[in-house]
Amino acid sequence: MKYIKFNKINKICIVTISNGPYNTLNSKVLNELNTIVDEILSNSKIKVVIITGQGDKAFVAGADIKEMQLMDKEQAANHSKLGQSIFSKIENSHKPIIALIKGFALGGGCELALACHIRYASENANIGQPEVKLGLIAGFGGTQRLRKVVSKGKAMEILLSGKMYSATESLSIGLIDGIFNSKEIDIKTQKIAEKISLNAPNAMSKTIELVNQSYFLKNNEGYDIESLEFGKLFQENESEEGLNAFIQKRDPNFE
Questions:
Q1: Radius of gyration in angstroms for the set of CA atoms belonging to the chain, rounded to a whole number
Q2: How far are the Cα atoms of 20, 41, 46, 145 from residue 2, in angstroms, in the given order?
Q3: The whole model's pTM is what?
Q4: Which of 103, 97, 139 is nearest to 119 (CA)?
Q5: Whole-angstrom Cα distance, residue 182 to residue 122?
Q6: Which string of b and e fits 98-126 if b means at least 16 CB within 10 Å?
Q7: pLDDT tens column, 155-194
Q8: Strand-by-strand arrangement of the 97-101 sheet
Q9: Model pLDDT for residues 22-74, shown as the tens digit of each residue
Q10: How far apart are CA 100 and CA 201, in angstroms?
Q11: Cross-strand bridge partners of residue 4
């Protein structure tokens, strides 16, 4: 692939977007990302995924403006649908996906990060949705997904102001989940991913599914489904291994 780098370390897959100094998302990048996401989800040896951008300047600094400038109404709508479909795959992935953000995560870059289950940023990160400054709106799910991560008022502020938020500001409003030194963020994020990768895959998959569903279900419905799925896991080999390992005071092996 030309724009997406793929590196597997033990049970972790690191996906790096590499498209110029700011890793912009054009149609070719999106199509490659779509292909690699499908491959990852079907690879049983991969337990956790990290998505990042090449270099320290940008995670993804947004869409390719020159490409977008040539689009008509129908092409723009289809481009939006392509981005939405890929990011929905990421959000609904049964494997944990972590965004490792260095530098700019703007527009489509912010939306990509929002689709990931966990977001870590370096201290030089700047995150935002500047589409209104171009006479546009967020088109890869930002108007829908941002509200799930921050308050409605803060989502409105981010989307309507077009402001860039520093790593510290982003952490304070819940837009990211941690800040690391730029020299340490790769190693520290990988260590977190390694710890996550040791946990039971089916239990993690079901956890992601239930948390995602919680935004659409009434409280009682969510609790009922949680109880049902909790019980089902007692029929799985994973729970037998996990419970036995705890009693025997050893690390579980969920291979």
A1: 19
A2: 11, 20, 22, 29
A3: 0.96
A4: 97
A5: 5
A6: bbbbbbbbbbbbbbbbbbbbbbbbbebbb
A7: 999 999 999 999 999 999 999 999 999 999 999 999 999 9
A8: 4-9, 12-17, 48-53, 97-101, 118-122, 178-180
A9: 999 999 999 999 999 999 999 999 999 999 999 999 999 998 999 999 999 99
A10: 21
A11: 17
Active site amino acids: 111, 131
Determine the Cα–Cα distance for residues 238 and 198; give it in Å rounded to an integer: 12
DSSP, residue by residue, the chain: --SEEEEEETTEEEEEE-STTTT-B-HHHHHHHHHHHHHHHH-TT--EEEEEESSSSEEE--B-HHHHHT--HHHHHHHHHHHHHHHHHHHT-SS-EEEEE-SEEETHHHHHHHHSSEEEEETT-EEE--GGGGT----SSHHHHHHHHS-HHHHHHHHHH--EEEHHHHHHTTSSSEEE-TTTHHHHHHHHHHHHHTS-HHHHHHHHHHHHHTTTS-HHHHHHHHHHHHHHGGGSHHHHHHHHHHHTTS-----
Of the candidates 91, 112, 115, 113, the one whose C-alpha atom is nearest the C-alpha of residue 209 is 91
Torsion over CA of 96, 102, 106 and 110, rounded to 10 degrees? 10
Amino acid at 220: N
Distance CA 238, CA 92 (A): 22
Helix 27-42 and helix 73-91, axial crossing angle in degrees, nearest 10: 30
CA max distance for the chain: 64
